[in-house]
Amino acid sequence: MALKTMREAISEALWEEMERDERVIIMGEEVGVWGGTYAVTKGFHDHFGPERVCDTPIAEGVIVGAANGAALAGLRPVAEMMTINFAFLAMDQIVNHSAKLHTMFGGQMTVPIVIRAVGGGGRQLGATHSQTPDVAFAHFPGLKVVSPGTPHDAKGLLKSAIRSIDPVMFIENATLYQVRGEVPEEEYLEPIGVSKIQRAGSDVTLISYSKMLQTSLQAAESLAGEGIEAEVVDLRTLRPLDMGAVVDSFKRTNRAVIVEEGWRSYGVGAEVAARLYEEAFDYVDAPIRRVAQREVPLPYNRELEQQMLPNMYDVIEAVKGVL
Amino acid sequence: MDKKDKLRLYHEMVLIRRLEERSADLYREGKIGGFLHLYIGQEAVGSGVISTRRPEDRVITAYRDHGIAIACGMKPEAVMAELLGKDTGASRGMGGSMHLADVDLNFWGGYAIVGAHLPVAAGMAMADKMRGSDAATICFFGEGATNIGYFHEAMNLSMVWELPVLWVCENNKYGMGTEVARASAVDEIRKKADGYGMPNARVDGMQLLEVRKAAEEALAHVRQKGPFFLEAVTYRFVGHSMGDPERYRSGEEITKWRENDPIGILRKHLLEIKGVGEKTIEAEEARAEEQVEEAVRFAEESPEPTLDTLLGMVYAGEED
Amino acid sequence: MATVIRMPKLGFDMAEGTLVRWVIGEGQEVAKGDVIAEIETDKATVEVDSQEEGILHKHLVQKGSVVPIATPIAIIGEAGEEIDVDTLVGELPELEVAPAVEAAKPEPALVAPAKPSDKPEVQVPEGIVASPVARRLAKEHDLDLTSIRGSGPDGRIVKRDVEAAVAAAPSTVPAAAFVTPEARQATREPLSKLRAIIGRRMTQAKQQVPHFYVTIDIDAAPLMELRKQFNALIPEEEKLSINDFIVKAAALNLQRFPSLNASVDGEHLVRHAQVNVGVAVAVEDGLLTIVVHDADLKPLRQIGSEARGMIERARAGRVRPEDIEGSTFTVSNMGMFDVDHFIAIVNPPEAAVMAIGSVQQVPAVEGGKIVIGQRMKVTLSADHRVTDGAEAARWLQEFARLLEQPLQLAIS
Known about the structure:
Structural class of chain A: alpha/beta
Helix content of chain A: 25-40%
CATH topology of chain B: Rossmann fold
Distance between the termini of chain A: 37 Å
Largest sheet of chain A: 7 strands, mixed
CATH class of the largest domain in chain A: Alpha Beta
Oligomer: heterotrimer
Number of domains of chain B: 1
């Protein structure tokens, strides 16, 4: 199997779906002539033409709004938010419209839109360009929120997202674009709303997704050197959240650490821990711990910024705290 | 337009008026919940513009949507049942007054976040254009919506991409209780379209025949060249919504506008046509009244939606 | 034709409005669209337009009144029309009004005793710190947690400690002491109507009535003795229960000290003229409260026979409306279950409920010596909006005196 970068995997998913279904269009800032600010759509404009790879004005409200309208009218738009921080300008379209029109109009409309948004900190971009606000989107029923942690899952999940007739927020992490992983040559899909065990282990369950999946896998390798075997569960989808693999693993290990890049308060860790206490209380052998970003707007200063973000050592320390 | 068509539109406007009056009664009795925004006084705008559309043209509007829905062909039963929250309502009791829609009639809904449906309209027009259809999208909104960012983003995009959208601004002088001059830098709203190089016109929204004429010309432009901005000057005879204390305008002002009742104007015009007498008109009025009563009966007897209906409606499904 | 004007709903969350001013007086002419009155909602003052024309015949509410929506407020008729206001208003259909103004529906009077306050089940001796999974495993293997040493933080007993203890346990104890049973299925069925009513009313009572509780220990020996003498003199089928004496005592006490024979109605306190004592009766699927009307005026034997009849009908499912309506105070007696004492929930609109425990033989001190006493614990639950602790305590004291000198019950 070929090793490919996350960027290549995402690009392939888009390309294949546009070849497969002519209703699929891409719209966003610099997606066309420029080729995407992260080079994900390089070559698309020339191949598919400006009709289907639409460069938009810098106006997030109308990017998602028009994508919603095009979706209502039968297209399969993939709207790109250059960064997830700009998605706040389109928040009303995402949470009040993409997520709600199907229910609010009694089931007669569907909004088959994908909103691709890139997030994550650690690149010295300052407070407004470094956020991981994934849970803010996962809060809303009607929306599906997907955030892959491997090239394999990124490709399979993005293809499923484009084919989904429900709106999907597809969240990527900028620091993962260079990560390599095995990606099959043949066509495949990964199901939305299914979590997955990415590494087997018996002593503790690490629960994470996206960038922090990679961090958790590194921590697990390091812990294995000390004889501690961590099982790593990848949520992959934040809504609908699949607790299947999480509860299953926790019932075997009885100990859990949840790792997320976003802020701790009201976060993924809070949600997963609450559900573990609800669904598997009699299997708890130690208080469930969370590893997350410190509660500050991220600074520009490199050292300080790195200190605020969760890393492998934080995960290892938390694991030792629950053993 | 022949005599028959004019009578049909007269009937439609009276039907909207009666339906709104009856809704107000039902609201006062506590049978209708939530907010209720009435279209009374603005009927000629919706009926005038929509009467010039082709079936493939899409219509989308804001939350003052009952009149637009009827003009698009929605049955009064479906409107009334939705107001009463019933399963037989246009949106199966999930939307209410502000969220009527019927996709089969190409009526894409009432939207209650001011300005939010303008980008949606642009996107629908974009899809039609991409498919090579010559359908237009007709987007109604109030003058209050022209002060929000969405308006400018959508105006701009529709011009840049030459989208087939007819923007219809229903300028009824007040955004809730704020008079246009207190909220908008220009009170002749169509001037805003000039900023985007968009052709535009202003029309007396109380005169059905004039609205129709302007809309016909505007739609012809939209199909050939791209977006057009039509400002219809109108007035709502009642409050913004039920329970509006109406401190922002005087009784004299309302009385003055009521003398310009779009229904009265068309009635007078009809009586001048040979072969149309009081009797013909009264028959149309009586028919409208009966339809509304029938709609109320239907709505009251209709079943409530079930919890399963709601729970099954949060997501449409996995993949297609 | 005269028309009734109702209080309009003027906003999505409006439940009531204050009629601040009548603009059109009685006898004045009204045209369609005229402002009849001004109404103040919690948001704004709004004018009410007339949908009718004619003469404003009558104002049905005073200026300044707070009026729920859909309530008739005025009548408009034709000039010179004879209008019978009562008939007109009386024949109006009740409008179903959605918001808070829930009309008091006649539902069976109920009282639900709270769970007998037996001591909480203690599974682990105090001071033991163990994780949930360790507790579960210890229970499954019938191991005593006090005998296990914890290796977790601060000595917490964790899973590995229990597993070690299981492994070390003598082999005479079968290791597989706990066999997972075949999948046992929980069942699910709709609440019975009675259960649902009890649930709704008790939830409402517990949430809306500020409860407080006063308990007293009563010497029941004189009562037991008197009852024995009394029952020896009357036919078998008329024999009196302890509860009959309690009903009589409560009724007499309420007559003498009527502070608890009251209800809160909005901003008002209603003192009831009658003393109607409810008695909670367990029936299939729940409980009902039968009501002895005017219990303060009825002789003991009549109370006994009435109560017996009503209890029989309640248990047979043939209860009559008058059997269960109008109680002003409730007695709930669980003496037959041998409970020491328990706490009941007030049954609105009543102000109090009295929970009676069983008569128990306990060591008692009489004249400096320990003798076998017969004691009964009574707990009064009362609505703090109506009364307070000191008053309730005095009331209970008087009640105790009546039971401890029970002859007065027989003669009054």
